[in-house]
Amino acid sequence: MRRPKIAVEVAPESAGRSLLDLVRAVAELARDEAAALIERGGVWLDARRCLDAALPVAAGQALAIHFAPTDGRPAVIHPADILYEDAALLVLNKRPGDYVNVTPWDVTGDVLWAAGRYLAARDGEAPPLHLAHQLDRDTSGVLVISKHPRANAPLLRAFLDHTVHKCYLALAAGAPEDDSFEVLTGHGRGERGRFRVYPLELVGARSPDGKHTVKPMETRFHVIERWPEAALVEARPITGRTHQIRLHLAHAGHPVAGDTRYDGPTTVAGVPLAHHLLHAAVMELPHPFGRGPLRLEAPLPALWQDVLAALRRQEVA
């Protein structure tokens, strides 16, 4: 859970007050709480993050205050999380619950920040790091980070040219009828800005907010194991849209277990789900410095293993 964002315009009578004082008053926070919020990067003026607590505000400025989730924790990198590393790349087995990049409420605590801290502590300094792609907060698995500026362009080109091949594992609610199936739809934002599925014939049309265009979205699925309550599914995204696999499984009537945004169940085989069960299991990509193709595999997190073991026990009983 997260306290809702506060967005107000600075009133004329507040002109000249320090940002710290204004945030304290508007958000009804203690001084140290407001100072920590600003220091973490949760306060914005005129759509720009502001870290200067002493800055005098001006009348008419747009103030936005973003609050961190109550269940948030800083990402930490351990040696066991590293799947592959060389001068160009750092590949991690991302843990569920970690944000991969800065958020509106925090400039620290994300995976990229944690990777920099880890490398600096190990090597004395951290190279310039750049995310090659994104993973949702609760999605675990293969995450590729560039360690060298010359690697950025080849990595971007590989993703754009579809020479990167990704395979995810998802635990889908219920049991799909077919062993293999494909979902092809439109993808865009809905009326409240959330991502949603659109009919294929609306691809190219404007979304309801008028700011975005509906784009094609395609995923291929294959069922690996079945139980009455759920199915272990291999998902291969052909396109790379936000929430693509989650949206497509929900659209097919089998939302990802634990994915409450898209009506996934919160327990499976009696096991409570602290996060959704979607895992970036395998990625194949060309090395950015031409050292041949890489195949990167990420082991499943503990919750995954607990749920699968519980499902298999039910099958035997």
TrEMBL record:
<dbReference type="GO" id="GO:0003723">
    <property type="term" value="F:RNA binding"/>
</dbReference>
<dbReference type="Pfam" id="PF00849">
    <property type="entry name" value="PseudoU_synth_2"/>
</dbReference>
<dbReference type="InterPro" id="IPR050188">
    <property type="entry name" value="RluA_PseudoU_synthase"/>
</dbReference>
<dbReference type="GO" id="GO:0000455">
    <property type="term" value="P:enzyme-directed rRNA pseudouridine synthesis"/>
</dbReference>
<protein>
    <recommendedName>
        <fullName>RNA pseudouridylate synthase</fullName>
    </recommendedName>
</protein>
<dbReference type="InterPro" id="IPR020103">
    <property type="entry name" value="PsdUridine_synth_cat_dom_sf"/>
</dbReference>
<dbReference type="InterPro" id="IPR006145">
    <property type="entry name" value="PsdUridine_synth_RsuA/RluA"/>
</dbReference>
<comment type="similarity">
    <text>Belongs to the pseudouridine synthase RluA family.</text>
</comment>
<dbReference type="GO" id="GO:0009982">
    <property type="term" value="F:pseudouridine synthase activity"/>
</dbReference>
<feature type="domain" description="Pseudouridine synthase RsuA/RluA-like">
    <location>
        <begin position="89"/>
        <end position="251"/>
    </location>
</feature>
<dbReference type="GO" id="GO:0140098">
    <property type="term" value="F:catalytic activity, acting on RNA"/>
</dbReference>
